[in-house]
Amino acid sequence: MELFRFSDEIQTAYERLPHALAIYQFIDNQIFAIMLSDGYCELFGFEGKDQAYEALDKNVYHNIHPADVSRINDEAYRSLMAGDTYDIIYRSRTAGNDDTAEYKVIHAIGKHVDMENGVHLVHVVYAESGDQVTKKIMDLQESVSSLLSNMPAMTFSKDVVTRKYIACNQAFADYACKETPEGVVGLTDFEIFDKETAQHFVDDDKKALDMNKPYIFYEDVPDADGNPRRFQTTKLKFMDATGRTCLLGLCQDVTDAMVIKEEYNKKLENAQNRANVDALTGIRNKAAYVEFENKLNKTINEKGWVQFAITIFDVNNLKTINDTLGHQAGDQFICEACKIICTKFKHSPVFRIGGDEFVAISQGEDFDNIEELLQYFSEQNNAAIKSGGIVIACGMAIYNNEGSVSPVFKAADEQMYKNKQYLKSLQ
Predict the structure, then answer these.
(1) CATH 3.30.70.270 domain locations along the chain
(2) CA dist., res. 299 & res. 304, Å (int)
(3) Could you give the CA distance from residue 358 to residue 381 in angstroms, rounded to a whole number?
(4) Whole-number Å distance between alpha carbons of 396 and 405
(5) For residues 360 and 352, what is the distance between their CA atoms, to the nearest angstrom?
(6) How far apart are CA 360 and CA 370, in angstroms?
(7) Hey, which of 26, 111, 135, 378 has its CA 20 to 30 A from 324?
(8) Topology, domain 151-256
């Protein structure tokens, strides 16, 4: 998975925040810094963001007291698994200090955010621990409000109890047909929009409040003048410095972009389908197998256990047919073998991963009957050796908590090779 990247406008706005804010991404149990604010650089003594990014790329625990690293790591993963707030106090030196410099005490508070496509971020606010912590958080709230006001997309915040708008930017004010953001503040949706549209917004607010991650969705709604609009909307609940539960919203007008995207997705889907199909046999190819393997590995990582079997097939005597009868006959030979495999493993995805090599990944009914399926190939091979038919060597392995697909594939391949040698000895 690649590092997540905000749009240039949002990245720049975050980085210009005068208070210490960092956004990290979790990838394969590792933590990467993807956004560091000016306030972060100042608090930790970096001369600039380039120096800060470089230092954290080398070691995300840069200048932290060695005795505190394990506590920070434990708290990060505890809060991640519990879906809870990240909250810890630790010691850190200023960037560039030598080993004799004193540590200062840092208070870090973070919130986990799940984005689209499996991206997991954590937003962390830093402050020197002491009497100034509350003031710094209040100042950060003002900075975030300023950030929202300057975003090009429509942004707003609401009080979830009164349902009144607390703040918004000019883009949202324009959508609400108000001259300024001040014209929106203090009003409810029912005081701005028609009844149906207002109820739609209220229903979406309720869904967002029931979630522990951003609620991201597309919606078709009119503006206050009744003009149709299509948005990609993100809503997220948060608690302000006074303890009030609020709702943050970001709406991007994607009316034109969605038409282009839908056309692009259709073309991309067609191209991907062509790219994942074996031209000779019409079944899925090696690229499709790699994609399927990656998805299965992801399921294993998420659930810890998946029941499946891998069977690898190798068509014997293909080289002899190519050499004696020609490649056209060899291609027909492969297609006939493919038909046999797919007919028996009809409940399993079958892939052609090499010239004469196929693989089936079995779950459900085929998994339950895997021994019967293998017995069929054993009997079919014995008959084919006598009659001169198609001989298909095969080997199978069952997932047994190895942690990934690769060891299962290797074990099946070893069994297939043994079966291939055995069958050759009979011919």
Answers:
(1) 276-426
(2) 8
(3) 16
(4) 13
(5) 9
(6) 11
(7) 378
(8) Beta-Lactamase (3.30.450)
